[in-house]
Amino acid sequence: MSPQPGQFRSLRALSLLAMLAAAALVPLLAAAQTAPGADDEALAASIVEKADRVRFPGEGFEVNVTITTTTPSGTAEPRKYKVLSKGNDNTVVMTLEPAAERGQIMLMKGHDLWVFLPTVSQPVRLPASQRLTGIVANGDLARANFAGDYKPRVLRTEEVDGEAMYVLELTAVDRSVTYNRVLYWVQKSNFWPHKAEFYSLSDRLLKTCLYQKFEKAAGRPRPTRLVMQDALRKGEESTLEYADMRLRELPDKVFTKDYLKRLE
User: Fold this and answer.
1) At the N or C end, where does the chain have fewer CB atoms within 10 A?
2) 155 within domain boundaries
3) Distance (Å, rounded) from C-alpha 18 to C-alpha 13?
4) Does some domain include residue 31?
5) Contact 214/223 with Cβ under 8 angstroms?
6) In which element (H, E) is residue 86 found?
7) DSSP output for 186-240
8) In a domain, 11, yes or no
9) CB 247 within 8 Å of CB 78
């Protein structure tokens, strides 16, 4: 029996409804495919944590750092520091040179930072974003915990000099951290950090850091040279050279205000 005119109209209506429903599902399916899920967040967090462990040991260690700043007018006298660090949240930075500043000590516990001066009886609170020397901020030397300071997400992968890289965006967990936002390049094959771009609250590029000269230190290859290039003043850069890194037992009392005057 042939369909009657009323039946044709019903079939056309049902077909139209099915087409509209399918069209409505397309953007929803696309959004579901592109929206970051738990797996994406876990991947981003894992990449940053592994790159943190490449840069520095998770256990207690000490390392000597020499910072040399170059400007268009010349090169400044190198400054030398000894860094003691344990876990992700405890760091002591002792100034060794210049001699006039020897005895100055920074203590970082969590996101709290103090400086102790030989001529001042009480410690002074400092922001992590304040300049230490050249274009190096206090937090660049005293705190290197990207995994704890930022919420990461993978933006893309790209090839740099023949190496496949993850490109991540790190967003500050709060305003106490050194930078508001970081773009971070990490090698896919071994999680070695390659480059980081640091941005201000106004999303202005402040500086770029290149991780170089990977050598075995404290049990594994690590970047022993960091080159920080100023994005605001062309031709100015600070180079951080890490040397004599070794694992060290550091009791918790080392990272207390009362103990700092006993450090040498």
Assistant:
1) N
2) yes
3) 9
4) no
5) yes
6) strand 79-86
7) EETTT--EEEEEEE-TT--EEEEEEEEEEEEETTEEEEEEEEEEESSSTT-EEEE
8) no
9) no
Query: If 0-12 CB within 10 Å is exposed, 13-18 middle and 19+ buried, where does residue 28 land?
Result: exposed
Q: Which residue has the tokens 């949240």?
A: 89
Q: Which residues contact 62 (CB under 8 A, 6 or more apart)?
A: 82, 83, 84, 85, 244, 245, 246, 248, 250
206 and 232 Cβ atoms separated by less than 8 Å: yes
Average pLDDT over residues 80-103: 93
Question: 35 or 253: which carries more pLDDT confidence?
Answer: 253
Compute the distance between CA of residue 237 and CA of residue 209 in angstroms, rounded to an integer. Answer: 10
* Cβ–Cβ < 8 Å for 136, 175: no
In a domain, 124, yes or no: yes
- Which residues have CB under 8 Å from 258's CB, separation 6+? none
On average, the pLDDT of the chain sits at: 86
Against a cut of 0.85, is the pTM above it?
no
Count: domains in the chain = 1
User: Bridge-partner residues for 18, per DSSP?
Assistant: none
Alpha carbon 259 to its chain's center = 29
- Residues 231 and 154: their CA atoms lie apart, in Å, by 24
pLDDT of residue 75: 83
Taking CA atoms, 216 is separated from 30, 157, 223, 232, in Å, by 45, 27, 9, 34
How far from chain centre, in Å, is Cα 43? 16
Is pLDDT of 96 > 60?
Answer: yes
CATH code for the domain in which residue 119 is found? 2.50.20.10
Q: What pLDDT band is residue 64 in, cutting at 50, 70 and 90?
A: very high
Asked whether the predicted pLDDT for residue 31 surpasses 70, the reply is: no
Token pair listed for 203: 């999303």
Closest C-alpha among 128, 67, 136, 123 to residue 96: 67
